[in-house]
Specification:
The protein has 516 residues and is of the alpha/beta class. It has 15 helices and 14 strands.
Length: 516
């Protein structure tokens, strides 16, 4: 198994570290891609981060990057970096499932805009990652293909719905990852896996080729080992796309040049509603409070603030998102693509049985919730009221950003919870997103950055920015990350030449080699 020479998998280096090695001629894209594929083979039986590994295509793309570098062609800063792509973005000729059995053999005829931009940047897509079905979930246990495990402790969830991409980056299977964030599905798994995850401003990144869950909430974004890597990846995928009617015409092109300007004089609001004593683990509150103190010591001016509408955001979200899902998923009818039950008696029976067999329990639950909320007699009481709450959230944030440059709080109320602990308790599962959904309702930008460990598991700090405030947000995240110096990684044990990951450092068997 290829490593960096210090026990770190070669694909587990940051994008910046890889770029430096490429520039010095110390490694090649083919070597790094091969190391990533080796790493996947060694660890993914345990983690199950990937649904499809694109070995041949990845190596061919890596060879093309190396040849371009040998010819002296100008290459971007991410050229040759291996990336784990959430299996909700379509890839031409490569299976795209959205984590659902209803799309198990779907092979799209085109690439999503984000995928096309990644390829132009020279990024090497090593595979499509596991996810909660149609991005509906907070643990990646709702996948139609089995759960993903957290690299820090395989008895726990990696978060969701982008759990496969987050786990892959945390485990060193890929340098970078792409996820989607509808209610926290980038930030929450980033927090639980100890990496950086960015939810961009709605419309900053094209949704063309993204399999929809809730179209007014979905947004594609980066996962990375550090803030600079996330910022560089966001630069590569952002930009106007005429094929997406919600794409912002003019967007900031530079997110990295000002990263090192620090937070001196920056005004940051500590949101009271994101620091509840009930429902939030003490260890999470301790790490985040320490993080806020650190930002103050770095020169930021931190003041308390209140956004009362945040108390109602989760309830509003779980009416709006299922309502949009009810509409979006009506297209899976067994007629045009995807699964079709063939021994049905008529077309109505075929559609019913196709959906019954193809959709998982959580998807069915949300379709029913959404259909009910949109039904005659209930629309105004539920969906209409939820949209009014959405407006209140937006206004609260607008008022807050008249006083502050950024807002701060925890990303999640807990560290990674055990597999199976919440699958039969939807309300408890939905509460995993209580700190992240307000940002999606308003369309703002937010980032989760590691803030330390609680009981040996990662805690995430969430910074929230106004719309198109990514540059300021990432600058603060970078300053915090560099000062904290969070360098912890999942503890590994090599058993019978296979990588195992031991919960809390305990050995699952005879140890041949231990890596920090």
């Amino acid at each position: 198994m290829s490593t960096s020479g210090a026990g770190v998998p070669l694909a587990g280096l940051t994008a910046g570290e890889l770029a430096e090695r490429f520039a010095r001629g110390e490694t090649t894209a083919v070597e790094v891609t091969g190391a990533a594929l080796d790493r996947i083979r060694a660890t993914d039986d345990l983690l199950h981060a990937f649904l499809t590994v694109t070995d041949e295509q990845a190596l061919a793309d890596a060879r093309a990057v190396d040849e371009a570098r040998r010819r002296g062609e100008p290459l971007g800063p991410l050229a040759g970096a291996p990336l784990a792509l959430k299996d909700v973005l379509v890839t031409k000729g490569t299976r795209t499932t959205a984590g659902s059995r209803i799309l198990e053999e779907f092979r799209p005829p085109y690439d999503a805009t984000v995928v096309a931009r990644l390829r132009r940047a020279g990024v090497i897509v090593v595979g499509k990652t596991n996810m909660d079905e149609f991005a509906m979930g907070s643990s990646t246990e709702n996948s139609g293909f089995g759960p993903t495990r957290n690299p820090w402790d395989p008895t726990r969830v990696p978060g969701g719905s982008s759990g496969g991409s987050a786990a892959a980056v945390a485990a060193g299977q890929a340098t970078l990852g792409i996820g989607t964030d509808t209610g926290g599905s980038i930030r929450q798994p980033a927090s639980l896996c100890g990496i950086v995850g960015v939810k961009p401003t709605y419309g900053l990144v094209s949704r063309y080729g993204l399999i929809a869950f809730a179209s007014s909430l979905d947004q594609v974004g980066p996962l990375a080992r550090d803030v600079r890597g996330a910022a560089t990846l966001l630069e590569a995928i952002a930009g106007h796309d005429p094929r997406d009617s919600t794409s912002i015409p003019e967007v900031p092109a530079d997110l990295t040049s000002g990263l090192e300007r620090g937070v001196e004089g920056m005004r940051i609001g500590r949101v009271a509603e994101l620091f509840p004593s009930e429902g939030t683990e003490p260890g999470v509150l301790a790490r985040v409070n320490e993080a806020v103190d650190r930002l103050e010591r770095l020169g930021a001016r931190v003041e308390d603030c209140s956004l009362p509408s945040f108390e109602y955001a989760l309830s509003a979200y779980y009416l709006i998102a299922p309502a949009e899902a009810s509409s979006n998923l009506a297209r899976y009818d067994g007629v045009r693509w995807g699964l079709r039950v063939k021994d049905a008696t008529d077309v109505v029976d075929m559609m019913q049985r196709t959906r019954e067999n193809g959709f998982g329990a959580e998807v069915k639950r949300r379709i029913m919730l959404g259909t009910y909320a949109l039904s005659a007699g209930y629309y105004d009481a539920y969906y209409g009221q939820a949209q009014r709450v959405r407006t209140l959230v937006l206004r609260d944030l607008e008022r807050a950003f008249e006083r502050f440059d950024l807002l701060v709080g925890p990303t999640t109320p807990t560290v990674a919870f055990p597999l199976g602990a919440r699958v039969d308790d939807p309300l408890s599962m939905y509460l995993s997103d209580v700190f992240t959904v307000p940002v999606n309702l308003a369309g703002n930008a937010a980032v989760s950055v590691p803030a330390g460990l609680s009981e040996g598991l990662p805690v995430g700090l969430q910074l929230i920015a106004p719309a198109l405030g990514e540059a300021t947000m990432l600058r603060a995240a970078w300053a915090f990350e560099q000062d904290l110096g969070f360098a912890e990684r999942p503890r590994e044990i090599i058993v019978d030449d296979r990588v195992q990951i031991a919960p809390n450092g305990d050995s699952p068997g005879a140890i041949k080699e231990v890596r920090p």
